[in-house]
Amino acid sequence: MKITFCGGAGSVTGANYLLEEGDDKILIDCGLNQGGAFCSEKNFDAFPYDPAVVKAVFVTHAHIDHTGLLPRLYKQGFGGATYSTPPTKDFAKELLADSEDILSREAERSGKDPLYSIGDIKKMFSHWKTALYGETVHESGFEVIFYNAGHILGSASICVKRNGKTIIFSGDIGNDDPPIIKKKEPILEKADYCIMESTYGNRLHDRSERREDVLEDIIEETVSKKGVLMIPSFAMERTQELLYTINGLVENNRIPPVPIYIDSPLAIRLTAVYKWYEEYFSEDAWKLVPNDASIFNFPGLSMAFTPQESRAINEAPAPKIIIAGSGMSQGGRILHHEKRYLSDPRNTILFVGYQGEGSLGRRIREGAKEVEIFGETIPVRAKVAAIDSYSAHADQKGLMQWIYPMRTTIKKVFVVQGDSEASAAFAGKLRDEFALDALVPKDNEQFELD
Predict the structure, then answer these.
(1) Nearest CA-CA partner of 420 in 170, 196, 205, 198
(2) Where in the chain is the domain with CATH 3.60.15.10?
(3) Among residues 180, 144, 32, which one has the least CA distance to residue 95?
(4) Cα angle at 200 between 99 and 433, to 5 degrees?
(5) Residue 141 to residues 6, 103, 110, Cα–Cα distance (Å)
(6) For residue 57, which phi and psi values (nearest 5 degrees)?
(7) To 5 degrees, how large is the angle CA 131–CA 135–CA 139?
(8) Is the pTM of this model over 0.90?
(9) 304-356 pLDDT, tens digit each
(10) Among residues 105, 123, 238, 306, which one has the fewest Cβ atoms lying within 10 Å of its Cβ?
(11) In terms of DSSP bridges, do strands 193-197 and 412-416 run parallel, antiparallel, or are they unpaired?
């Protein structure tokens, strides 16, 4: 049996792992490589394998850096099944359609052919099958089981068995106390090999302040100043976590009445998918459901789906809260609000997610006095705040706790899905504390699993 690291090695994005024995080949994830732009040049390279000979793909979760090249795989000859949990399939429908629109516009600007079309996405979903947590899928001589990874709703770690070997693909491992979904489950399999993420492999999350307390203070301050609170937010998971937290503040009368606008068509569609899968919610989330039938619906909340509804937000008097994409202020409707409101010191911009190097969000967060938006120079006089505890990824401590039950049987750990410093640090931690044979593979490097 061999494994080839076709993506995700030495990089946070682009997860793509080829597992093969003889003529039987399967993939774990097939993600888009992302960099400063939405799509990096690497995505236009040929796959390092023939898509036509791959038998099946198993998807850990719906994020584009794990699913974004699946339609291209079908476009180039793959005709097998894609497997995931049911929520992952439904989230992927929305995320891949949105991604195709962005990729088409980027390709048009750069004079390239699009990576894939809506037709390729439809073809892909005609072959997509689902499995529940704990259910065994038999495919081309492989036995595959999905375990709850606690990262986002429907996310999974994947266990692959064949001929006495057990290989665990971590996917993205969730933080200790996810606000909506159930916690990650321990994997008690006697694993031989583990392909493990390391996004926060060299860092610990700040747990000194409760995020709901910080958010409460920021909202109260915004209302007292009769200002506008802008929150750039990712449509998937981060927006829903914000709604969940604000719902709790409203239910417990911890914040004054204030209009709250979700200004993102994608976030609105993804929030609807969450409502289909309340059986995946944590016990704490379930406690809120009986009060208002949904943890994403509370007094003062409005959804701006159309461009007209988005523009109408500007006519609403302050104070008000606007949650809009994109999460790094690299595009989307948040730019229109930042252009309008950043120059007023009564207003606040709140960052609740990682701000990539070179992004507009990073420049604002690091204290830029002025920024350019739509060709216009905008002074930054609004207050800049951040809540760093909104992370769907386990930190180094959480990653070590996750692998702990498997440490006595694992022959080798391949550390992936992190930048070079994070991956190297985490591999060293595994060697030092658990005496595991841990290494950081290179892009397209292949290993035989003895």
Answers:
(1) 198
(2) 2-204+392-448
(3) 32
(4) 145
(5) 22, 36, 43
(6) -125, 135
(7) 70
(8) yes
(9) 999 999 999 999 999 999 999 988 898 889 999 999 999 999 999 999 987 87
(10) 306
(11) parallel
| Cα–Cα distance list, 330 to 166, 179, 300, 370 (Å) | 41, 26, 28, 16
pLDDT tens-digit map of 273-282: 998 998 999 9
* pLDDT score at 38: 59
CA-CA distance, 161 to 257, in Å (whole number)? 54
Out of 3.30.450.20, 3.40.50.920, 3.40.605.10, 3.60.15.10, select the CATH number for domain 2-204+392-448. 3.60.15.10
**3-class secondary-structure state, position 320:** strand
The CATH class given to the 211-386 domain equals alpha beta
For position 211, what pLDDT does the model report?
86
CB 319 within 8 A of CB 222: yes
- Residue reference for tokens 């796959």: 47
Helix H segments across 225-298?
238-251, 265-276, 283-292
What is the C-alpha separation between 345 and 177, in angstroms, rounded? Answer: 35
* pLDDT above 90: percentage of residues in the chain: 78
* 66, 156 Cβ separation under 8 angstroms: no
Task: Please tell me the distance from the alpha carbon of residue 219 to that of residue 128, in angstroms, as a whole number.
Answer: 42
Per-residue confidence at 290, pLDDT binned at 50, 70, 90? low
Mean pLDDT value of segment 393-409: 96
Q: How buried is residue 194: exposed, middle or buried, by Cβ count under 10 Å (0-12/13-18/19+)? A: buried
- Count Cβ atoms below 10 Å from residue 113 Cβ, excluding itself: 10
Cα 283 to its chain centre, rounded Å, is 22
Question: What Cα–Cα distance (Å) separates residue 192 from each residue in 34, 413, 430?
Answer: 31, 9, 15
